[in-house]
Each structure stands twice: as structure tokens, then as C-alpha cells.
Specification:
Blueprint lengths: L4 E7 L6 H8 L5 E6 L6 H6 L5 E3 L6 H10 L5 E4 L4 E2 L2 H13 L6 E10 L5 E12 L4 E4 L5 E4 L6 E10 L4 H7 L1 H10 L6 H13 L3 H14 L6 H16 L3 H14 L4 H13 L3 H14 L14 H13 L3 H14 L4 H14 L2 H11 L8 H9 L4 H5 L12 H14 L3 H9 L3 H8 L6 H11 L2 H9 L7 H8 L8 H17 L2 H8 L7 H9 L1
Parallel strand pairs: 1-2, 1-4, 2-3, 6-10
Antiparallel strand pairs: 4-7, 5-10, 6-7, 8-9
Helix pairs in contact: 6-7, 7-8, 7-9, 8-9, 9-10, 9-11, 10-11, 11-12, 12-13, 13-14, 14-15, 19-20, 22-23, 22-25, 25-26
């Protein structure tokens, strides 16, 4: 009997995520086809634990050719294309397979909803429909070397979408830094000889991701000029991204003009309304921004989102919490943050905002009761995560609440030691922290800092406070993806050079914790360096 469902994948150096993907589909898919395009990690070995259908394919800068080669090995009636950094919910996937047998779709090329987790910790999501499921009849294949699309050989494709979600973690911040996907995609697109209007949209996206905003705007405008239809999915996204890029380029009037026009053309789409509210917020026009976000919450039942479901409720609540804080409507701010967390309790930044607000205006006992009743007992929480959240709140007595987790069996030895050292620093017991660190070799110190509990920020602050030359030398020797040498030269040697964005962010973090500890000598040094920072960073420091 012919199999029903074949999974087809192309992979390269995906050992970190491949097992998660294959665990989600194994035992449900009738066969799994994996094509490796040149891995030098354990990807092939992992793949062979799940299937014998593992093949090599020489990479020729063409995703479609690799996908079509994988499809040539499939024997199922339907092919489902999935990437290693994606996964499915098993129950939904099983239901999809049953429906392919009992209620076969009338389409031969089918789009599913891709839910991408974005940000440092996947605290936000973006939505996109992409064609992943198609009839294995020999007439349908991929074309385009990048951002590939399915098409019928005789243009007889019958396309549609189904209610199925595929989850994608490939655009989390650390993954993107590791894989350099933006540069790869841009080179493939620029080298394409015959470009379609959509190609210029994709080129704009890659330049936007690389912060080359003027180039992004130019390509977006070209794509819009060449568009064949105003209501194509990519055109709606183009207009949104163009407005967002114009805003980042300080061209707000142009951005707002686009958004207001789009509200009339796409009245039920929340995306353009949301971005307009965000721009007014950034322009400090809080009354306008508040009205837009409050209106979105009132109308959310009649609105849909093309880009992120968060625009319908979660993100407006985040913004409203900040606006209510600025307007001193603290009860409303607490309500907004709490409601947002009920929708997404994985967002640590929201927890920090809420706890900071409660820490400022509640007694320590009331705050402790709140944490015990609303945080500690959550299944998504653990002592390490709670400790890191508390230690990120810029209030010393709130940070000290983290010591309740000392010697907790859920902490590793390194995590427990880091938490102890952090609390010794909070108690101004620097000598005890120094005595502990002096006894450690460099690798042990790196392991300690890697916990993120007693962090590199704390180590820099300790070094500034104690003027310890051994620690200063050690800081210069630690290797990062992006060096911090200019920051160290500014802080320790008074040599002032332009800092990278990462270095300026570290400067802000050290400054913020110096304020918490009331380290007057350190603050004097750092205040003396403010004039060498960007205007945006100086504004951040002035608000602390």
C-alpha cells in the first residue's frame, strides 16, 4: 500500500535542533527523507537514528534544487516539507494525517501557518503562511533558489490553506547570530539573474535585517512599484516593513502616511493600526498612542493579524502598561502587565516591569506574597529563572529576595555559588567575593559568569569598585563573539573610542546596577564618560 505522508527535509549543521524536529514527527509520518547539503557536525548521525532515508546532496546555492532532490526520494501521496529548526504539535500532526485519508483537501498545494518565535528568548511571535504540503504527483516542484515557492509544471496548481501550525525557532536572536542567514540570503538574491518583483521585497528584508535601512527602503519602493496586485500577501507585508523601516530611519511622516493609507485599504488588519500606535509612542505622543491601543483592545474581536497575533492584545497591553505608568495610573499599569502575562508568562521583561512597579509602590511583604501566589507556583517557573528576574529589577531589596533560593536543590553547584556571590555583592561584602574568585582558575570563573546570575556586568562592576588589576586583565582575555575591548578601555584606561551597540548596552547595564548599589565612585567614572556615548544611550542613562 502506498504511504500517505512523506516528510522531506534538507539540513546542514543542525545538530542543536534536529532531534526536537524529528521527535515531533517520528511515528506519525509514514517516511522521513533527509537530504544533507554538507554538514560537518553530528546532523547525519542524528538523522540516521530516525530514518535510513538519508542522502547527500552537493550544495549549489539553490534551495529549490535541494528540496526537489529530497522530493524525488519520497513515495507518499503527500509531501510535507519541514526544516530542522521547526517542529509540530504531535496531536495536531496526527489529526492532519487522518484528514489526508478521510477528508482529502481539494487543493494540491497547501499553505500552513508558520509561528516563528523571535527575540532573545522567544518571548514574541510572528505569523506567516507558507506552502509546505503538496501532492506527490511528479507535476509539482519548487522554483527560486532562495525563498522558494511551489508551482505546478503546467500552471495547474490549486492552492489553498489549512488550519495547521508549524512552529519555527530559527529567528531567535542567538540562532540568527550563529547562522548568518541574512548575509547568505542576500547574496543568493543579489546574484539571481532574472528578478521578480517579490525578489526586491526579499532583498529589502535582508538589508533591513542588516540595518542598512536606506538600501532596504530603496528595494521596498522598487518592489511596490513593480507589484502585480495590491492584495498579495507579500505586498501587505512590504507596506508594513516599509513603514517600520522609515520609522527607524527617522522618517516618521512618510511612515505614518503609509500606515494611514493602509488602514483604509485593509480596514480589518490590526498590523497597520498597531504600528501607528507604536510610532506615536516613540514620538512621546502618549495620548494618541494610548487611544490607538485601547481601540485595538475594544475591536480585537473584529480584527485579524497578518504578521503577529501579539498585535491583537499582548503587545497593546505591554505599551499601555508603560503609558499608564508614565501617566501615574499605577493600578491600570499593574492590570495591563498582569493581563499581558496571563497571555504570555514566558516574557521575562514583562515580569521585570511588573515586579519593578510593585517593588516601588508596595511593601516588601506584599511583594513577597504576590511572588509566592503568582510566580513561584507556576509550572513554567524555576528557581534560576525567578532569581534572574528578581536580579534584573533595579531595586536592591527586591534583588535580595533572590537569596531565598540559596541551596535550592534545583540549582547546580555553579548556579548556587553564583547566587551566593551576587548576594554578597548586594551586601557590600566585596572582599569575600574577591577571596572566592582569586582561588579559581580562568575557566572556572567563565563557568561562573556563564550562569548569568553573577554575570559579566557584576564582574565589571566589582573590578571598577576594587580596581583589581588581576580581574581587569582577566576581562580583556575573555573571548566574545563581539569584543568589548573599547568598553574596557573607556572604563579602565580612560581611552575613549566609539562603542558598538553591544558595548553601549553593557555600559547601561553596569551603570544601572551601580545605581542599585549606590556605588558613587563608579558612577562618577561612568558619568564622566557619558559624552562619548550615543544620544540614545545618554537618554537611557538619564532615565535611570
Amino acid at each position: 500500500m502506498k504511504p500517505i505522508l512523506s516528510i522531506c527535509m534538507i539540513v546542514k549543521n543542525e545538530e542543536k535542533v534536529l532531534s526536537r524536529c524529528l521527535d515531533s514527527i517520528s511515528g506519525i509520518a509514514d517516511e522521513i527523507i533527509i537530504v544533507d547539503t554538507g554538514s560537518n557536525d553530528q546532523s547525519k548521525e542524528i538523522a540516521l537514528r530516525y530514518t535510513n532515508n538519508v542522502y547527500d546532496f552537493e550544495w549549489v546555492d539553490d534551495f529549490s534544487k535541494a528540496r526537489n532532490y529530497a522530493a524525488s526520494k519520497a513515495t507518499g501521496e503527500w509531501i510535507f516539507a519541514i526544516d530542522a529548526d521547526e517542529f509540530v504539535e504531535r496531536e495536531s500532526f496526527q489529526k492532519l494525517k487522518v484528514e489526508l485519508v478521510e477528508k482529502p483537501p481539494k487543493f494540491n498545494i497547501i499553505g500552513v501557518q508558520i509561528v516563528s518565535f523571535v527575540g532573545q528568548n522567544g518571548e514574541n511571535t510572528s505569523l506567516n503562511y507558507h506552502e509546505r504540503l503538496y501532492k506527490n504527483n511528479g507535476d509539482i516542484s519548487y522554483y527560486r533558489n532562495v525563498h522558494e515557492i511551489l508551482a505546478h509544471v503546467d500552471s495547474k496548481e490549486n492552492k489553498g490553506t489549512i488550519d495547521f501550525q508549524l512552529f519555527h525557532s530559527g529567528y531567535l536572536a542567538d540562532v540568527m547570530n550563529e547562522k548568518n542567514k541574512f548575509e547568505r540570503n542576500l547574496n543568493l538574491l543579489l546574484n539571481k539573474k532574472e528578478k521578480e518583483p517579490m525578489d526586491y521585497f526579499f532583498i529589502g528584508n535582508e538589508y533591513r535585517n542588516l540595518e542598512e535601512l536606506d538600501k532596504a527602503i530603496t528595494y521596498y519602493q522598487k518592489a511596490y512599484t513593480l507589484k502585480p496586485d495590491m492584495y498579495l500577501d507579500w505586498v501587505k507585508k512590504l507596506l508594513l516593513y516599509l513603514a517600520e523601516t522609515l520609522h527607524r530611519s527617522k522618517r516618521d511622516e512618510e511612515a505614518l502616511e503609509i500606515l494611514e493609507s493602509c488602514e483604509k485599504i485593509y480596514p480589518n488588519l490590526v498590523d497597520f493600526k498597531f504600528y501607528k500606535g507604536a510610532i506615536y509612542f516613540d514620538k512621546k505622543q502618549y495620548k494618541r498612542s494610548k487611544k490607538i491601543f485601547e481601540d485595538i483592545l475594544l475591536q480585537k474581536g473584529n480584527l485579524v493579524s497578518d504578521t503577529s497575533i501579539d498585535f491583537l492584545e499582548l503587545s497593546p497591553l505591554r505599551y499601555l502598561g508603560e503609558i499608564y505608568e508614565k501617566e501615574n495610573e499605577l493600578h491600570k499599569a499593574v492590570q495591563s502587565y498582569s493581563k499581558a502575562l496571563s497571555l504570555n508568562e514566558s516574557d521575562d521583561k514583562l515580569w521585570i516591569k511588573l515586579i519593578t512597579l510593585l517593588g516601588k509602590y508596595s511593601s516588601l511583604k506584599d511583594l513577597s506574597d504576590f511572588l509566592n501566589n503568582n510566580m513561584v507556583n507556576k509550572t513554567t517557573m524555576n528557581p534560576v529563572r525567578i532569581s534572574k528576574i528578581l536580579l534584573s529589577v533595579p531595586i536592591i531589596n527586591v534583588q535580595k529576595l533572590s537569596r531565598s533560593f540559596l541551596d535550592n536543590p534545583a540549582l547546580t553547584t555553579s548556579e548556587n555559588e553564583a547566587l551566593l556571590m551576587k548576594n554578597l555583592q548586594l551586601d557590600e561584602c566585596s572582599e569575600e567575593v574577591i577571596d572566592t574568585l582569586i582561588k579559581k582558575n580562568p575557566q572556572e570563573i567563565v563557568s561562573l559568569l556563564a550562569t548569568g546570575i553573577f554575570s559579566i556586568v557584576d564582574f565589571i562592576l566589582l573590578t571598577l569598585n576594587t580596581k583589581n588589576s588581576v580581574f581587569e586583565e582577566f576581562l580583556y582575555k575573555i573571548k566574545y563573539d563581539q569584543p568589548l575591548e573599547n568598553l574596557y578601555n573607556m572604563l579602565f584606561k580612560k581611552k575613549n573610542k566609539k562603542l558598538t551597540i553591544l558595548e553601549e548596552n553593557f555600559f547601561v547595564s553596569v551603570f544601572k546596577q551601580a545605581v542599585v548599589l549606590d556605588s558613587k565612585e563608579v558612577l562618577s567614572v561612568m558619568n564622566g564618560r557619558k559624552s562619548f556615548l550615543s544620544k540614545e544611550t545618554r537618554n537611557k542613562l538619564n532615565k535611570i
